[in-house]
Every structure is written in structure tokens, then in C-alpha cells.
Amino acid sequence: MKLALKVTEVEQLSPLVKRFRFEDPKGASLPVFSGGAHITVDMPEEDAIRRNSYSLISDPYDGTGYEIAVRREDRGRGGSLYMHTKVAEGDDITVSLPSNLFQLDLRAKKHVLIGGGIGITPFLSQLKQLEMEQKPFELHYAARSREEAAGLKLLQEAAHIHVHISEEGARMDLGAILDGQPMGTHVYTCGPDGLITAVADQTARLGWPKTAVHSEAFTAPPPGEPFEVVIASTGQTVTVKADQSLLEALEAAKVEIDSSCRGGACGRCHTKVTACDGRILHNDHWLSEGERAAQQDIMPCMSRFKGTRLELDL
Amino acid sequence: MTMQFNDETFRGDYSYFNSPAAVKRFPFPFDQDSYMYSVNIEQHPGGPKGSPFEFAFDVDEHYVAEMKDREITLAGDPMRCQSLPHMELAGWDLLELIMVSKARDYPELFKLTRDGNDWHWVNKPLGIEKRFTFLDPTTLPCGPMEYITRQAQGDFALLHEREGNLWLDAGMITSQADWSLDFDVGMNFFEWHAPVPKARKMGVFDKALKFLLAVGQDQSYRRLNWTMTVNPRLDTSPENYHKWGPEKRTVTPENVGKKQFLRVELQTFWRLPRSNALAFPIRCYLANLEDIASQPKWGRRLHRVLRDIDPDLAEYKGFAVNQKYIVDYLSQFDDGAETSPGIFPD
């Protein structure tokens, strides 16, 4: 199911980040959601629809509208540029219902949220949920400079909300944040891979259970060189353009395929490879190292191919 | 539409009965003349008008009596309803889902008026009228899951998602086919399904879990499961096995048609919005062999299914001890004619 909404607000939060608000054109209430949920936005262009997923940053229990924040990626395949250059107040926009791959574990005695750069977004809805649920938490937001820190406009000043601006010499010290947290604390990280790895390393050193360490790294699919795939059941050849994901190309060619997050995290589009003469460029967070090396599986929402023949079990 | 509610019991004198209309709409679970496990999942709600699939939460002639039976079971054993502390939000989600659905689908029976978080709920069949504050547990006499499931037919399990698995962390379970919430609470999907024969090896659970984890807020689904029960008893729990287990031995060739019930579970799956938990309602329908055989297609088919079933499944479903009586009885309705596809009667 899709929601046909109107763009009701566009706000420049920082030189690279815009906030968008979507509402039902007739003012109907939208389904509420859980902190950390995302929606997928349709971006129709000429012959195909590009789709990106964005974390919801608005109050999860407020059905009057959905809000997202989008960082412009000039070297991306065009999704964020579309949002920045083609979407204006009053436009129609089609989005998916919310779905959540980064939910809070409400068993936690305390929640520590760590966001790097645009990775602050899922925490904006989570902290509203935590406030409503009256759960103890602290949030750490790291950014390079105050100018780039789009999240600043969306965060309240509060004792448990910490901003770390590295340009001002206030680099985030993960050891200091994580050491001494009470038993039963859960930590959630969203941001660059380096930050997620650093939190994982630090919590491992401190002996945290793995089940108390959560992260979300899904990003938009990267662009790349065009390539072709063959559909095993029909013999059809599908061309994937430079600024298109394999999933988008399959959808444009009306090949039936399941999908959800479009960021390599949920596993729904997991597809078997029946022939591979070349190298799969894995960009997902779903397949294991072993599966990547074997080249018998691919996540079409994120991954690409370089070589002479890739045949998919579709 | 006015609905008549049966004056009937599910224990003691077992006065439970199905009206002719209830028999016709019974969710017969077999779409062919044989049975093996399958992930037989369809979208829900949706189905022929008047069928138990038409609405999100079916309300039928047994509603009031079933709620009375639940009250008796809970009074004897409060542990049939449990909710781990982190599941309260899921309980509110479930309360909202059920109240909104029932008020929409049965406006002559239920009414919900909402002004922000100030809610007013009217349940005419049970004579309940309640004003409360949504998400404020101090305004209800008990937790939100218990409150609403004392007013909704069927068992309810609430599943918490974490670590790529589902955890049975809350439930109202008083009409179960021989499993215990008190034993299973806190278990994950594979743990609570461990007693089911063959299925794990067949890969059924891996597929089912993958499917359930992918259920979205905008999609809900159903499947039918079944077993056999002697006497129309909802509470066939392990805790009370001493009460109903021996009744299996009271079946004779003379009374099998009246005493032996086909027990069908209409299981549905819902992604809850605020908690991101999954709700798993398990609605139980009972019809004895006489009722089933009143529909010629069902009589023929049930005979073939139970005659040819895998012996492990007959044992697991608890009717191996009476299988001969059952099959002999049903054989009189099987003239060897072909049966039409699908579950609905001809």
C-alpha cells in the first residue's frame, strides 16, 4: 500500500540538509509508527521510478504528518538531488507506510543513542518515543562543524542531549560515553560505518552483551557503471543504468521481486545467482562474508556487477 | 443485522451448539482431500460476506458465552494472562486495533468515540461502557491487553521482535490446543514450536519466521490450523489435562458424531504501529462431526483426510486413540464422489 501525500513544508536545515513535511491532502490522519521507522519515497523520472528510504524524524504518535531530513549527495545516483531540486511545497508525493528495522528494545533499563552526521535522523523519532514512554536515555550527536550539524535545529537543549562538534575540539569520546553505563543499558548507533564499528569495538572491550548493541547503516544505493543481468526464468536481459539500482531496473522491466528497505538491511530482495562470470559489487549489510565471497547471492537494492554475465534466479 | 448470542457452556454439561447458519459459515480448513503442513497464508481480512474471514475480528453467536468461559478460566488460573513489562505498549496497540475494528465492522454492537486520548468505549453484548485515557494504564481496571482480550473471542499472543527472531512476551491464552502460556512465555519462535513434529526438518519454521518478520503495518494475514477435541471444550490446556484428557476415552461408535469436534484455529498476523510488535490472534471454532457431515462435501473430504493422515500427525493432534471410530463414522458420508476445490461448502 502507498500513501499519496502533499508536501507541506520544505526547510533548509543546513547547507546540505533539507527537512520535508508530508501530509494527507484531505487532512486525514496518517498511521502512527514506532521510533526508528522509515518510509520509502517514490521519485518518478521519465521512464522509471527511483525509490529511497528515509528515517522519519517526526513525532511517531502524531498522525498529522510525516517528516524526513535528506542530505544532498552530489555523487549519489540522484535520489537526494531529486529531493533537493525537484520537490517543493504543494507538490504531490507518494510514500510507503512506515516500517521499522531499527526499533528500540523497550526491555532496556537505559538507552544510549549515538548519531553521527545525518545518522541523527532515526533518533529524532526515537527520542520522542522515549520521552513519552518516560524511559531513561541519553543522546550523543557528533558532527564536524556547527554549520553542517543539521540536527541542531531539531534537538532541544536538555541535560541528556549531548552535542559533539569536532571542529570545536569536542570530539566524541566513546570510551567515556560507554564506560560506567548501568547494567541493562542498550546502545544504538547510526552514522558512518567507522562510527558503528568503533561502538561495536568499544562495547566488546567493555564486555557488553552483543544483544544490547544495535546499529543502522542503511544508505541509499550507490551509482556505478551500467551493467546487464539475465533473468533465468525468461531469458530476458535487463540493463541497469549508471544512476539506477539493480532493483529499480528490475522493477522498471516488470520483473517480479519483493523488497522493503531499499538499503541492504532487511533482506527482502535477497536473490539467488544462477550464473556469474565476473564480480558482484556487494554494498549491502545483509549477506555474510562467506556469502559475498561465494557470489551465489545478491541484494539487488544495493549491489552492482562488473563482468560479462550475471544470471538471476527470478 | 441483529445477532443472537447462544446461551451455552464449554464445560460441565457442554451445552455448546452451532446454529445451522453457524455450521454453514464454519471455517473448514481443508482445501483438498489430504493434509500436510504448508505455509497456507492469505491476506486478511477479506472473504465472502458472512464468512469468518470478512472482518478483522469475527464476532459470532458464541461471543458472550466464550467471554464467560474465559472469565471462569482466568478466575481459576490468572497466569493464563501474562504480559512482560516491555509489552504494555503493544497491549495498547492491540486494544486500539480491536476497538477500532469492532466499532467499524459491527456498529450495532460496539461503539468507540475518540477525542485525542480521551476514549469512550461501548460494548453492548457484554453491557460495558467505559471512559478511559488511551496510553494511561491507571484509567483501566487492568492492563490494556487483558482489558480488551476479555472482550474479544480467541486467544491472543503478542510477539516482540529482536535479534532477528520473535519472542512470545505477552498473551491471553484460555482456549488453547494443549500448550501453556506460563511455560512458553519469553520463548522465541523456534523454542515455542519445538514440540511440533516434522515441521522443523521440512524448513517450515524458517520460512514462516522470515515471512512474519517481513509483515508490514499495512498488511495483515491469516492461516487456518486445526486439531481434534472431544467435547466442545475451549480450555484444553496442559494445566487442566486431568480434566479433559480422560474424556478422550468416553468416545464410542455411538456417540462419536456428537462428541468428537473438529477444532479450527483462524490465526491472524498484525504488525502493531507503536510497539512494532506482532499480534497473533488465534480464534478457535468448534464443530462436531455431525455438523461437518451436514455439508456433503465436508463429510467426504474429512473422511479422506483423517483416514490417510500421517500417523505422527494423528498422534500430535491428539486423536490417534479415537481415529478408528472417527474414520468409521465418517465413511458413511463418503460415497467416493469427487470434491470441489476450495474450503467452502457446495
From TrEMBL, chain A:
Q: Which UniProt keywords apply?
A: 2Fe-2S, Flavoprotein, Iron, Iron-sulfur, Metal-binding, Oxidoreductase
- Which part of the chain is the 2Fe-2S ferredoxin-type domain? 227-314
Give the FAD-binding FR-type domain ranges. Answer: 1-105
Highest taxon of the source? Bacteria
Keyword match Amino-acid biosynthesis: no
A GO MF label:
metal ion binding
Any Pfam family the entry gives: Fer2
Question: Which InterPro entries does its entry note?
Answer: 2Fe-2S_ferredoxin-like_sf, 2Fe-2S_ferredoxin-type, Beta-grasp_dom_sf, Cbr1-like_FAD-bd_dom, DmmA-like_N, FAD-bd_FR_type, FNR_nucleotide-bd, MRET
**UniProt xrefs under PANTHER family:** CARNITINE MONOOXYGENASE REDUCTASE SUBUNIT, NADH OXIDOREDUCTASE HCR
Name listed for the protein in its UniProt record? Ferredoxin-NADP reductase
Organism annotation: Celeribacter neptunius
TrEMBL record, chain B:
Q: Which InterPro entries does the protein's record reference?
A: HODM_asu-like
What's the protein called, per UniProt?
DUF3445 domain-containing protein
Organism whose genome encodes this protein: Celeribacter neptunius
